Amino acid sequence: MIRLRLSSAFLSRMRFAYSPLAETAKSLYMINSGTIHPLHRGWYERVRPDLGRVDRELLRAVVPPGGHVAEFLFVGATATTTTIEQQLQLVADWPLEQFVGELTQARRGFSSSAAARRLFDLGADGPPRVADALEQYWRVAVAPYWPQLRAVLDADVAYRVGKFARGGIEEVMQDLHPSIELTENAIRIASMAEDDVDGGSLTLVPCVFIWPHLWVELGLAGEPSLTYGARGVGALWQDNDGATEEDALGALLGRTRAEILVSLSLPRSTTDLARSLDLTPATVSAHLAILRRCRLVTCWRSGRRMLYQRTAVGSTIVAAGGYDNAGGDDRRTQTADVSHEAK
User: Fold this and answer.
1) Which CATH number fits the domain 239-320, given the four candidates 3.30.70.60, 1.10.10.10, 1.20.1560.10, 3.40.50.880?
2) How much is the pLDDT for 334?
3) What sign does the dihedral 84-86-87-90 (CA atoms) show?
4) DSSP string of 54-77, one letter each residue
């Protein structure tokens, strides 16, 4: 059992962060394990032809199938603006003794491989070499889809912030993960590890590829984070050709507005929509203004970006037009497993 003791200072510094590195590590873990979750099958089929461009042998040594995931693969998520470059620099600078210890733990139970031996032989050059290989994989498998992943993360944070405003941390933790229990003075997490932490802050990190598991990071500085499965994963990879001129939805709203409304099952910016629909940002903005006036779309600011998403009325209209699964959130297969706990 892991216990994160609550205090007013602890709660006042609670924040959300995104971790491009966690998405990289967990998607790689899934590929190396040879078991692609059905929700991510479409993504895998898209990226598989390009995986030959990365050092798969070295990455398999770092993230072996079914093994412990190294702590340094979850490092550095401090804000929703965290970049992969910031995180990979932390990996490259990771203390050698801890790097070797984490890799040794990750490979426990696996026979030694040539790539693993070469990595250990590199000494202080090992962490930068791993950072380079992770960057290769990121550019091939994750970066092209980061706007889609980011939309899911934005939607999850908007949902959690709303829950916090309504009922505080108890409301936020209620459906974060089945292994989490909130008591009067602590967050308790079912785990084989035994830790009792009184940290200075708590960071909540929604993650697409970790779903349906949970990662508990206690942190070198005693500031814990919870990396959990983001809501909306079920809608992430749904291919949608938009509305055609013959569609009832297109006939009702006009083809372009129908395409925009169908695309807004998850929060997206004007730039995201313009890129995916091959329209100019000005055209998208004009149509969004009309959809907002009709109360079919709502918007809010996230950092420097203005995000748009369908309202309940907009989703009802989309479903009536035959796009019933656009925006679904399937959490039925979520388990109570806590994948790994960094001690």
Assistant:
1) 1.10.10.10
2) 32
3) positive
4) S-HHHHHHHS-TTSPPPGGGGTT-
